[in-house]
Write a structure and sequence with these properties.
This protein has four helices and no strands. It is mainly alpha-helical.
């Protein structure tokens, strides 16, 4: 069961990594659009100045309209880019947390495997060296299996509890924010 849970967590982490990568690509596209709009703004501004100096009123009006359009576009793109960069930074941090969490789960899995191996080894040794102690200390193979299962369950419950706690904290924050807005 723990193996399945770790595999699911790895798959979710991989999928999240793809979304983070797409967000980074979106930043690149926004930067390219911003650079193009800024270049056109500069070009239209110089054309507007030239048309005014030359006395071409219709061209000056057109160029000025274009300057206003590109100014608004540059401002919008810059705001979008700033928001996207902030969002990407947050996503990258959370993605790294996910990767660390999966690694921690794998370490826990190794710890459980070590405990399981040691328990089985002690059981086998005691069975041969001190058969009378086996009944007292471990009881039966079913008791040993139950013990190992309980260890795995405790680890899963701790993870479930922490995930639930995070969700509850998030809900409290949202509720507090909504109360502040009202």
């Amino acid at each position: 069961m723990l193996n399945r849970y770790i595999t699911e967590a790895e798959n979710q982490t991989t999928a999240t990594g793809k979304w983070v990568e797409r967000q980074a690509q979106l930043n690149d596209k926004l930067e390219k659009e911003l650079a193009e709009a800024s270049a056109m703004l500069d070009k239209r501004q110089s054309q507007s100045d030239l048309a005014q100096i030359s006395g071409e009123e219709d061209l000056a009006d057109f160029a000025e309209m274009e300057v206003q359009t590109y100014t608004a576009r540059v401002k919008t793109l810059q705001n979008n880019l700033d928001e996207n960069i902030a969002e990407l930074t947050g996503l990258e941090h959370r993605y790294e947390e996910m990767k660390h969490k999966v690694k921690d789960m794998k370490v826990k899995q190794l710890q459980l495997m070590g405990k399981e191996n040691a328990t089985r080894a002690h059981y086998q040794m005691d069975k041969l060296l001190s058969p009378e102690l086996v009944a007292e200390r471990i009881g039966s193979f079913e008791d040993m299996t139950s013990y190992i299962t309980t260890l795995g369950t405790k680890v899963e419950e701790r993870h479930e509890r922490s995930a639930m706690e995070r969700r509850l904290e998030s809900l409290e924050k949202k509720s507090a924010n909504q109360k502040e807005l009202v």
